[in-house]
Amino acid sequence: MNSYILKRLLLIIPTLLGIMTINFFIVQIAPGGPVEQAIAQYQGIEGGNSSRIASGTNSEIKSTSGDSQYRGAQGVDPEYIAALEKLYGFDKPIVERYFSMLWRYAKFDFGDSFYRNEKVTQLIIDKMPVSISLGLWTTLLAYLISIPLGIKKATSHGSRFDIWTSTIVTVAYAVPAFIIAIMLIVLFAGGSYYDWFPLRGLVSDNFDSLSLWGQIKDYFWHLALPISASVLASFATLTMLTKNSFLDEIHKQYVITARAKGCSQNRILYGHIFRNAMLLVLAGLPAALIGIFFTGSMLIEVIFSLDGLGLLSFESVINRDYPVIFASLYIFTLVGLVLKLISDVTYTLIDPRITFEGR
Fold it and tell me: What are the subcellular locations of this protein (predicted)?
């Protein structure tokens, strides 16, 4: 097992390098980079935050006829463009920028955001509480709902309960999370019916002045709708996986033998079947958690104006904030690869019969 873990850890390096390389060159050669956006903002084509640009150069826009590699740069002073390139690091060749990024990222030095005047690491740390809140509670609730429901569906396979719950699960799986989120807002957040829950934010403005119990209630009051939307969109697959795992185990020989020996139904279900059936479900917990943290919550954060990692990544892509984009990709990929390895190790912890030594 130790040799397998070591091989997987060594494979993380080329996998991470390949992902970063492909994305770096695709993003770098794509039009609409930060220099072009800065030129457009100063020409009044589109709005945006130009405070850093203004502080980074005092060059004035002058009418010239020089050619430029940047779209929309006609009539802009070449010295101004050169100052922008230096500000954003585009005065160096792309290969030099690539190797410089790899060297800094190997030391976990992600630099500064182009538009927020903050360290990228500090930005990610500041946004983590929102994403952790959504991911943690969504995952816990999804497992707490899906596992009992899947077991009940397996033990009553073919009954009216199984048919009706399968219909509900299928509909929940078919409807995207953002549609569910919009429906919840319309119904319960002052849309067209009830105004029971807040529309945006993780806590209220007076959160610091509340008592401990008041802060806990306020926190979950704000999370109620986002978590509900995430859970409704994510528990369907887990429910059906649990049901099918239990159905597969129920018809095996050791269960028939246990019944022949006179074991009770609960003893058979939770003493014999549960551990084998839950192997696939529990081993996928780390991967499910990372998926909810860094992918599934983006649209939910945007809709409910929750300032987390999903919203940060979305705004960074829109603004071409390359340091934040690449740092987020690097961190999420690295954590995802490590958690995939943890998922494999979890298999062996749950069922010692599984081994990766032969791989």
Answer: Cell membrane
19-52, pLDDT tens digit by residue?
Answer: 888 988 887 777 666 666 666 665 664 444 444 4
| DSSP of 235-265 | HHHHHHHHHHHHHHHHTSHHHHHHHHTT--H
Residue given tokens 């009418």 in the structure block: 63
Q: What is the pTM of this model?
A: 0.69
Rg (CA), the chain: 26
Verify that 268 and 165 share a domain, yes or no.
yes
Output the CA angle 215-216-219, nearest 5 degrees: 85
With 0-12 / 13-18 / 19 or more C-beta atoms within 10 angstroms meaning exposed / middle / buried, residue 350 is: middle
Same domain, 159 and 215: yes
The reply to whether 143 and 253 lie within a common domain is yes
With 0-12 / 13-18 / 19 or more C-beta atoms within 10 angstroms meaning exposed / middle / buried, residue 235 is buried
pLDDT average, residue stretch 173-181:
81
In terms of domains, do 52 and 129 share one? no
pLDDT at 4: 76
- The CATH number covering residue 297 comes to 1.10.3720.10
